[in-house]
Amino acid sequence: MECKKILAQTKLLYIEDEPAIRELLQETIAEEFARFDTAADGVEGLRKFLEGDYDVVVTDIEMPKMNGLDLAQQIKSKSKETPVLILSAYTEKERLFRAIDVGIVKYLVKPITPEKLLAAVCETLADRYSLVELGFGLVYDPATKDIVSANGRTKLTKKEYQLLELLLRNRGRIVTLEQIEQAIWPEGGFSEDALRALVKRLRNKSTKELVENYPGIGYRLAT
Question: So what CATH class is 3-128?
C-alpha cells in the first residue's frame, strides 16, 4: 500500500515538549493522518495513550516529568504491539542500547524534517497493510481487518483480529496462554473460557483448521 493511504488510516500520538515543533507538525502533516494528537510531556503522553487507540507513537527522548524511554517502557508494558519511534538529538551508545531493550522500532536523530518523519512512520507500518496468505483459500487484509475468501469478506472484531495478528507474528511457533493474555487482555479480564470462546469465533469466521490448540500451553497458526 502506498504511503499516503497508510497515513490516511493511521492514528498517531506525537509527544514533544517544544511547543514550536508541535505546532509546526500540527500545521504541516496532521491532515495526512486519520488522527494526529499531541502531548507536551511524557505524563500527558501516557495518559492520552491509555485513553486513546493509537497505531503508532512518536516521542522525543528529553522531556520533563517522564523521558521518552521511560514513556516507551510504560507503553510497551500496556501494549507490546504498538510501535514506538524515538526522536533525539543524541546518539550515545547507552541510549541506543536502552532503546533496543525497551523495544523501540526506530531511533531517529533530530532535527528531522516532516517528510522524513512521514516516511519513517510509513516504513514502520507498511507490513501491517500487506495482504497475508492464511492458507485454506483464505487471505487476511490487515487494512480492513477482514478475512477474504471466495465467498467474500468477513469482518473481525478487535479481539479476533488481535489474536489472529498475534498468531501471524509468531507463525510456526506456539503462542503461550500468558503471551495471549498480555497482548489481548492487558487490563485484566482474561480467562481460559474467554480465550476458548474467542478462538471458536475466529475459527467460525475462517476455518476450524486455522488455529491449532495445544492444551494447557497455547495456540499456533496452522502452517
Answer: alpha beta
Between CA 143 and CA 140 the distance in angstroms is 9
CB neighbourhood size of 36 (10 A): 17
Where do the structural domains in the chain lie, given as residue ranges?
A: 3-128, 131-221
Neighbouring CB atoms inside 10 A of 16's CB total 23
Of 97 and 130, more confident:
130
C-alpha distances in Å from residue 46, one per residue of 23, 106, 199: 20, 19, 31
Grid coordinates representing 12? 498517531
Position 57 pLDDT exceeds 80: yes
Distance separating the N- and C-terminal Cα atoms of the chain: 26
Q: What is the pLDDT confidence band of residue 143, given thresholds at 50, 70 and 90? A: confident
List pLDDT tens digits, range 188-211. Answer: 889 999 999 999 999 999 999 999
Return the exposure string of 199-208: e unless at least 16 CB atoms fall within 10 Å of the residue's CB, then b: beebeebbbe
The CATH number of 131-221 is 1.10.10.10
* DSSP helix/strand/coil, 65: coil
Report phi then psi at 160, rounded to 5.
Answer: -65, -45
Q: Cα-flanking dihedrals φ and ψ of residue 158, to 5°? A: -60, -50
Distance, CA of 162 to CA of 142 (rounded, Å): 10
Give the whole-number percent of the chain exceeding pLDDT 90: 61
